[in-house]
Amino acid sequence: MLSISKSLILASGALALAFSAAGCSDCDGDFCAEGSVAALDGAEVPETAKTIVVWSVAQDTPTLGYKYGAGTSTADSFIVSLDDAEPPAEAIGDSGVGVGFMALVADDADISEGTFDASEVTLLGISSRHAVIYKTADAEGLDWSADFEEGYSCGACVKVEGQEFDTFTTADCDETTIEVSESAPALDVCTWM
Question: Is the whole-model pTM more than 0.85?
Answer without folding.
Answer: no
